Amino acid sequence: MPDGGSPLQTRFGFVMTTVTTHDPVASVRLPISIDALSPELDRKLRAVGRSRTLLKNETLYLRGTMPDAMYCIESGAVQLSTTSAKGKESVLGVVDRGRWFGEMTLLTKDPRPHDAKALTDTELWVVPAQCLHAIVDHEPAYLLEFLCLVCRRYKWALGAVENQAQRLGGL
């Protein structure tokens, strides 16, 4: 994948950009068009949420914990990562301003599959699980919107895996 923030068109039509930072973490970020919720759903989620501040390197949640909320970044950034049994951390992604995350495990009622920690001082919007469930229980169209969001992310991830395999000569 190109360095320095240049775009790469995937087979699936999404543009990925490698973000180069002074931090040892270089991440691939989803285009906002893949990650966006409708303005109406965004407003409903914000109406039932509350603000929370994380300090740089503060943990939001750990892999294996049960979900109790979903989040939107107001400012700052949160790193999603996992650590191997040998202690090696793998960065799965970085969530930045305007992005919602954490909804998948609320909907599946599974433990969190990764850790989440603030890369910088970060302002979050927090929507408790019971509030999300109340919204989607009364408005099935919003549940479908979350399903489409997860499918877009999955499709994008497949493209990223394919690009990585091509880079390594596997395809």
Per-chain topology:
Blueprint lengths: L6 E3 L5 E5 L7 E3 L2 H4 L3 H10 L1 E5 L4 E3 L7 E7 L1 E7 L5 E8 L3 E2 L1 H6 L6 E4 L3 E7 H10 L1 H28 L4
Helix pairs in contact: 4-5
Runs in which pLDDT lies below 50 for 5 or more consecutive residues are: 1-27
| Annotation, overall tally of beta strands | 11
Give the amount of beta strand, in percent: 25-35%
The average pLDDT value, as a whole number, equals 82
What is the helix/strand order?
A: EEEHHEEEEEEHEEHH
Number of helices: 5
In brief:
With 171 residues, the chain is an alpha+beta fold.
Structure report:
The chain has about 170 residues and is of the alpha+beta class. It is built from five helices and eleven strands. The strands form three sheets. The protein has a four-stranded antiparallel beta sheet with strand order 4-11-6-9. Strands 5-10-7-8 form a four-stranded antiparallel beta sheet, with no helix packed on it. β2 and β3 form a beta hairpin. α4 packs across α5. About 20% of the residues are buried.
Keywords for this structure?
32% strand, globular, 171 residues, 4-stranded antiparallel beta sheet, 5 helices, alpha+beta, single chain
